[in-house]
Design goal:
Radius of gyration: 14 Å
Number of strands: 5
CATH class: Alpha Beta
CATH superfamily: Histidine kinase-like ATPase, C-terminal domain
Distance between the termini: 21 Å
CATH topology: Heat Shock Protein 90
Strand content: 15-25%
Shape: globular
Largest sheet: 5 strands, antiparallel
Structural class: alpha+beta
CATH architecture: 2-Layer Sandwich
């Protein structure tokens, strides 16, 4: 799936996840994790990676196999240092209104990998 970097297109991603859940009869627990983590990843790609530039795109690839559901989200941005993010659970960060996306993705997915520059994230969910 390829979408324009417009936050309104999150609804297309939600529909994709709903369709996959129905087609592959995913458990409600898996559905919740996938929905939150993938939407957060796409949201980050639109807002932070592509900086909301509607001339740029976000690519969402997915694969469903016997044991896993895998999503790869790619943006056209310069990436970021995913290894040096502030911990959102520390007292000095608790009241911040942003900075929790990667933390949530790490805790919801069974595996999370970024490419070297950080503009490509792979999320793996066990079925």
């Amino acid at each position: 799936m390829v979408i324009v970097s417009d936050i309104k297109n999150i609804s297309l991603v939600e529909k994709l996840i709903d369709d996959l859940t129905s087609r592959f009869q995913l458990h409600a627990d898996v559905y919740g994790k996938v929905l939150l983590a993938v939407v957060e990843g796409v949201n980050n790609a639109i807002l932070h990676g592509n900086r909301g530039d509607k001339s740029k795109h976000v690519v969402i690839d997915y694969e469903v196999n016997d044991s896993d559901l895998v999503f790869v989200i790619k943006d056209e941005g310069n990436g970021f240092n995913y290894q040096n993010l502030p911990d959102p659970t520390l007292p000095e960060n608790i009241e911040r209104t942003s900075g929790r996306g990667v933390f949530l993705m790490k805790h919801l997915a069974d595996d999370l990998e970024f490419n070297e520059c950080g503009n490509n994230v792979k999320l793996v969910f066990n079925k």
